[in-house]
Design goal:
Blueprint lengths: L10 H9 L7 H12 L4 E4 L6 H11 L10 E4 L3 H14 L8 E4 L5 H10 L3 E4 L1 H9 L10 E4 L2 H6 L3 H9 L6 E6 L4 H10 L4 E4 L10 E7 L5 H10 L6 E4 L3 H13 L4 E4 L5 H12 L5 E4 L1 H4 L9 E4 L6 H8 L9 E7 L4 H11 L4 E2 L5 H18 L4 H15 L4 H20 L25 H5 L5 E6 L9 H9 L9 E6 L4 E6 L3 H8 L2 E3 L2 E2 L2 E3 L17 E3 L8
Parallel strand pairs: 1-6, 1-7, 2-4, 2-5, 3-4, 5-6, 8-13, 8-14, 9-11, 9-12, 10-11, 12-13
Antiparallel strand pairs: 15-17, 15-20, 16-17, 18-19, 18-21
Bound molecules: adenosine monophosphate.
Adenosine monophosphate binds next to helix 3.
Length: 570
């Protein structure tokens, strides 16, 4: 492994790196920095968040910028305002000994007139979100005609958020002769297409495995009934007393619900999502960064720019629609060489989603058991004792009070004193977890397909022999990528009704029928109505009596998106 001094970096930047405590380059820095400094190349780099990629493109970008010329020479595009601010802050810190070099973050949600003012004063590096930059270009407030370096940071995220058109327009304002650097945690086809279209024979550098999860992250899953999801979450949190975590939810509403319940239950938690104003988001993130908040409940988009290095856990309260989003979530832990744990809470019907993610991250999930109440109490007790023994005692301050304290406690034996003392904090756990039920669901309850395995009977029918079923017909089928697990998963997501019995499922080319407990007809209609599956809006209705249920033969997999709940809309 090389040192920073061997990579061709100028002394002023080396000084800044050492003041930041950067001793050795990370693998992506070791590869990218000399490459960009030596040659005029385009680069596609697959690097996870937390690998040090900002310095990898930022250091050469700063070194190649003429600080005495007061027009934009470097452009960095980021998917979110938080990331934008973060990257600009990092670049400023690498350039802290180059006083004339100005870095400006321009992003939506902040006053455009102030950004235009700063641009007029002269900046050399602009870090921007695509929407705001396009706006500034339309107002002729920024000149990109002399940009030497264009960087796409988290390109996969930008494309997933639907910024294709903005990127195209922005690039038209930049000169043809420039270096384009593209960083992406995953390499979906759209990113490869952008690279092919806008880059000139790019060098491809992969740090770690393509589309892989962060190296230091252990991936665990817990299987529960959907209605026990929140209780399971609490147990997982309680079982690691000093955790510092992000809990990812799929929607703003779920984020608010979970955060609210945690706060009411006495946890040091808060919510971060797109409904908050920029000032509120900054406040929540500030509190989380300095650990005034221990648990942050967030949507994918809101948490993107959050740069926190010592998270102990990432908890997926619900899995994201896209496996690639899991890579981003889990990459929030295990950063800067630390170890991290990414936890997934799933229903048995969602196991196929785990397999999809495993393929993507090329790692296996380890199944863990939701701890029992007693196990959690033991963990909490040990942690409490540890904090007592490690607390530093201010003997001088206590000395004048000691006699009075000793007198008050004199009637207690050593054993009683220990018990009293421990009970102070511990009673609430004991109370809460007394008679706590087992929340684990065995993987054997998994239903592998709509059709019983050869020689076996239909488990779901056996469990509920006297059940009255309603048959529902749905206007999507195999062609839209529907599989029985998806339909079962959707029904299992219905809250507050217990387990809904499901009968036979039949998936045809363009439609599907399913049988389910008649008592929940309204809830089932509600759960599917307005849902969007692989781009098609679902229409569900109660099938006319006599509608036939044929054998399921479909093999392809489908992903559900509730309308208005796509990742980019959170
Ligand atoms: P990034 O992937 O650019 O978001 O960086 C992740 C974190 O690692 C940031 O907090 C950086 O400050 C930190 N970092 C980046 N490079 C180094 C390095 N060479 N030594 C120590 N920390 C680093």
């Amino acid at each position: 492994m090389k040192n920073f001094t061997e990579l061709g970096i100028d002394d002023t930047i080396l000084k800044a790196l050492s003041s930041l405590g950067f001793d050795k380059p990370t693998p992506v820095q070791e590869k990218v920095i000399p490459l960009i400094l030596e040659k005029q190349v385009d680069l596609v780099s697959l690097a996870q968040t937390g690998t040090g990629k900002t310095a990898a493109f930022g250091i050469p970008l700063i070194q190649r910028t003429a600080a005495d010329k007061r027009y934009p020479q470097g452009l960095v595009l980021c998917p979110t305002r938080e990331l934008c601010v973060q990257v600009a802050r990092d670049l400023e810190s690498f350039a802290r000994f180059i006083p004339k070099l100005k870095v400006l973050a321009v992003y939506g949600g902040a006053r455009i007139d102030q950004q235009m003012n700063s641009l007029r004063k002269g900046v050399q590096i602009v870090v921007a979100t695509p929407g705001r930059l396009k706006d500034l270009l339309n107002r002729k407030a920024i000149d990109l005609s002399r940009v030497n370096y264009a960087v796409f940071d988290e390109a996969d995220e930008m494309l997933q958020m639907g910024f294709q058109d903005e990127l195209k327009t922005i690039l038209e304002y930049t000169p043809k002769e420039k270096n384009t650097l593209l960083f992406s945690a995953t390499m979906p086809k759209e990113v490869a297409r952008i690279a092919a279209k806008y880059m000139n024979n790019p060098v491809e550098l992969t740090i770690g495995t393509k589309n892989a999860g962060a190296e230091n992250v252990r991936h665990e899953f817990y299987m529960v009934h959907p209605r026990s999801r929140y209780l399971a979450l609490k147990r997982i949190v309680d079982n690691s007393p000093n955790n510092y975590s992000i809990i990812f939810c799929r929607t703003r509403r779920e984020t608010n619900d979970v955060a609210h319940k945690l706060i009411v239950d006495g946890y040091n938690a808060d919510a971060l999502h797109g409904d908050l104003s920029q000032a509120q988001r900054d406040q929540v993130m500030g509190k989380f960064r300095c650990k005034n908040i221990q648990i942050l409940v967030a949507t994918d988009v809101a948490a993107r720019g959050l740069d926190v290095n010592d998270l102990t856990h990432v908890i997926n309260y619900n899995l994201p629609d896209e496996p690639a989003a899991y890579t981003h979530r889990s990459g929030r832990t295990g950063r800067a060489g630390r170890k991290g744990i990414s936890i997934v809470i799933i229903a048995s019907s969602e196991q196929y989603k785990l397999r999809q993610i495993e393929k993507k991250i090329k790692k296996q999930f380890i199944q863990c058991k939701i701890p029992t109440g007693m196990e959690i109490c033991q963990k909490q007790l040990v942690s409490q004792i540890d904090s007592v023994t490690s607390v530093s005692v201010d003997h001088d301050q206590i000395a004048p009070l000691y006699d009075e304290i000793a007198e008050k406690l004199s009637h207690l034996s050593r054993e009683d004193l220990i018990k009293q003392f421990v009970s102070l904090e511990f009673n609430r756990f004991l109370d809460y977890y007394k008679n706590a039920p087992d929340l684990n669901v065995s993987s054997h309850t998994r239903v592998k397909s709509g059709r019983p395995e050869r020689g076996k009977r239909d488990v779901r029918r056996d469990v509920h022999p006297n059940n009255k079923f309603t048959t529902f017909s749905i206007n999507v089928g195999r062609r839209q990528g529907i599989v029985p697990q998806g339909l079962i998963g959707k029904i299992n997501e219905i809250q507050d009704v217990g387990r809904i019995k499901i009968g036979r499922i039949d998936i045809l080319r363009n439609s599907a029928t399913l049988e389910a407990d008649s008592r929940y007809t309204a809830q089932i209609l509600g759960a599917f109505q307005h849902a969007e599956i692989n781009g098609k809006t679902v229409n569900i209705e109660v099938a006319k009596s006599g509608a036939s249920i044929k054998k399921y033969r479909g093999k392809r997999k489908g992903t559900f998106h509730r309308k208005g709940r796509k990742p980019q809309s959170v």
